[in-house]
Amino acid sequence: MFKKLRIKASTKRSAIQDIKGSAMNWLQVKLIVAVADVEIIANVLEELGSGGVQISDDPQFDSDISAGQEAVIAFLPEEIDQQDFLSQLQQRIQLLLTENLFETTPRLLTKTVSESNWTNTWQDHYQPVRVTRYVTVVPEWIDYSTQREDEILVKLNPGKSFGTGMHPTTQLAISCLELTMRGNERVFDVGTGSGILSIVADKFGAQSIIATELDEAALGFTQENFELNQVEQKIKLLAGSLLSPIDTQADLIVANMLPEALIPLLPQLDQHLLPNGQVILTGIIKAQATKIKAEIQAQGFLIDLTLHSEQWVCYRLKRQSESV
Ligand SMILES: C[S@@+](CC[C@H](N)C(=O)[O-])C[C@H]1O[C@@H](n2cnc3c(N)ncnc32)[C@H](O)[C@@H]1O
């Protein structure tokens, strides 16, 4: 029994077209984990560019799991480099194990499956989602009209990139943008993925936006999403790591990335932030919040707003020297 399906971009636009049309086989990647480890492993799968992530939680229906365990399941289309995906997945798990982030060691199972059993569910669940008071995220292929005058629509096409609006960290970042932005800000969006936070920042009245992304394979989808929302003129998309591709300063920097990317970002913030600038950081799992907080303070920032969702935390920062 699948208790929930987290909607994540599939791997390629052509894969989406295959989902909609002809039959194909997929590699099912199934990780048997302790219940407490579900979020982190689902997040890793999504960051690596998996398809829809299902979570199976009932041993009656799933003989691979026993009490206290759940299975996090992703499907990889034939056309992506599955071996590369699996090797990256194993490396990430190893890294997280060395940081003692799992309650138990995840068990990896793989098998080839036909698409028919899951793609309908995948599409059925990828529906418009009202993320905040104002923002609704809508899959490109769904006809949706605003339900309220002040509703802000963000149209997205799943691609290899992360950021469908369904993940708690994306939702935290959007909520924090909504709480923070007053209009006319220069915004940097680090690790833009699908581009969702840049699009939202534009809708909230940003003066200009620069988005960076390490994963060059995702950039085509990001650009398509900018065009879909007619914000491509406003947002400059740069390939590269963290803030390194940028040599200017912003009023607001937003980043939704795992701590392994956030920690090296912290020393880059000060030089990229205008006076009275603010920073929104999420992607932080509660177990790592203390470590991140210490790093934030060590870099001369303080946290003036904290938001939580499920096991995730979002911090808004400003310089300690500008705290009054
Ligand atoms: C969790 S996703 C967030 C995507 C989107 N911003 C959102 O909020 O949904 C993190 C993104 O950061 C990118 N990323 C990871 N490390 C990075 C780095 N060092 N520099 C730039 N982007 C990075 C990943 O490729 C991924 O697209």
From TrEMBL:
**Pfam family membership, one:** PrmA
Q: Does the UniProt entry include the keyword Zinc? A: no
Principal EC category: transferase
Q: Which InterPro entries match?
A: Ribosomal_L11_MeTrfase_PrmA, Ribosomal_PrmA_MeTrfase, SAM-dependent_MTases_sf
Keywords, in A-Z order? Cytoplasm, Methyltransferase, Ribonucleoprotein, Ribosomal protein, S-adenosyl-L-methionine, Transferase
Molecular functions (GO terms): methyltransferase activity
> What is catalyzed by this enzyme?
L-lysyl-[protein] + 3 S-adenosyl-L-methionine = N(6),N(6),N(6)-trimethyl-L-lysyl-[protein] + 3 S-adenosyl-L-homocysteine + 3 H(+)
- In Swiss-Prot or TrEMBL terms, this protein is called Ribosomal protein L11 methyltransferase
Q: Which organism is it from?
A: Lapidilactobacillus mulanensis
User: What is the primary gene name for this protein?
Assistant: prmA
